[in-house]
């Protein structure tokens, strides 16, 4: 290779000149969507805030119209259920409530009854159990409820026997707090049906009931 940049008789340029050009595609035609736009938005120079009310008229009408129809349908369902219940025969309505003879439940024991397809625990509490439940500090509970809020008579605790975790049926007179124990995932309830330990988030629900002498009617308030 020689000093003048030749190699085997060939010459090389020491620099490369590159020229770039941009072409304007002025022949491209864009589709016209004016036929799909509202009249109030056809003017491109008009600010959007000036056409806001006009643009929202149709969506608002659809929203409130559909909402009104759904509300009417829901109201119709409620009315139909009420009318159907009122129109039931007396023996059919009786199935919505059960009568439990309290003198058949010894003190210190719990009996299970079926009400509307669900188990109901009726617990005849002893004086010691009553004292223990009323002494519980409500502020320490996961679902704070005083025993007085859950019973009508101190010696009787009546709850629906469905665990508030995943719906299993607890075992009565068991668990760390002498109330109910759910074997599915280990929730412990006390003698008032309040959750004290385990994954359940809420206390066992209390059904509507009234006392009539030595009978309690569950399903009547």
From TrEMBL:
Subcellular location: Membrane; Mitochondrion inner membrane
Domain Rieske: residue ranges: 150-218
Alphabetical list of CDD domains matching this protein: Rieske_cytochrome_bc1
Co-factor binding details: Binds 1 [2Fe-2S] cluster per subunit.
UniProt cross-references to SUPFAM superfamilies, sorted A to Z: ISP domain, ISP transmembrane anchor
EC class (word): translocase
Keywords noted in UniProt: 2Fe-2S, Disulfide bond, Electron transport, Iron, Iron-sulfur, Membrane, Metal-binding, Mitochondrion, Respiratory chain, Transmembrane, Transmembrane helix, Transport
A GO CC term assigned to this protein in UniProt: mitochondrial inner membrane
GO MF: 2 iron, 2 sulfur cluster binding; metal ion binding; quinol-cytochrome-c reductase activity
Record-linked InterPro entries: bc1_Rieske_TM_sf (IPR037008), Rieske_2Fe-2S (IPR017941), Rieske_2Fe-2S_sf (IPR036922), Rieske_Fe-S_prot (IPR014349), Rieske_Fe-S_prot_C (IPR005805), Rieske_TM (IPR004192), Ubiquinol_cyt_c_Rdtase_Fe-S-su (IPR006317)
UniProt catalytic activity: a quinol + 2 Fe(III)-[cytochrome c](out) = a quinone + 2 Fe(II)-[cytochrome c](out) + 2 H(+)(out)
Catalytic activity, EC: 7.1.1.8
Family the UniProt entry places it in: Belongs to the Rieske iron-sulfur protein family.
Record-linked PANTHER family: CYTOCHROME B-C1 COMPLEX SUBUNIT RIESKE, MITOCHONDRIAL
Stored NCBIfam families: Rieske_proteo
This protein's name: Cytochrome b-c1 complex subunit Rieske, mitochondrial
């Amino acid at each position: 290779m020689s000093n003048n940049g030749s190699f085997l008789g060939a010459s090389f340029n020491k620099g490369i000149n590159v020229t770039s050009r941009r072409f304007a595609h002025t022949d491209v035609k864009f589709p016209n969507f004016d036929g799909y736009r509202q009249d109030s938005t056809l003017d491109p120079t008009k600010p959007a805030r000036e056409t806001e009310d006009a643009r929202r008229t149709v969506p608002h009408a659809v929203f409130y119209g559909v909402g009104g129809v759904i509300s009417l349908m829901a109201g119709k369902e409620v009315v139909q259920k009420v009318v159907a219940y009122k129109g039931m025969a007396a023996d059919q309505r009786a199935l919505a409530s059960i009568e439990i003879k309290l003198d058949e439940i010894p003190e210190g024991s719990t009996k299970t009854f079926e009400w509307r397809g669900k188990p109901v625990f009726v617990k005849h509490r002893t004086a010691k159990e009553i004292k223990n439940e009323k002494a519980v500090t409500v502020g320490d509970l996961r679902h704070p409820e005083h025993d007085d809020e859950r019973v009508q008579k101190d010696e009787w605790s009546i709850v629906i026997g469905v665990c508030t975790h995943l719906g299993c049926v607890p075992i009565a007179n068991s668990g760390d707090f002498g109330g109910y124990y759910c074997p599915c995932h280990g929730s412990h309830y006390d003698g008032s049906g309040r959750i004290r330990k385990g994954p359940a988030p809420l206390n066992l629900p209390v059904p509507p009931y009234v006392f009539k002498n030595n009978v309690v009617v569950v399903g009547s308030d």
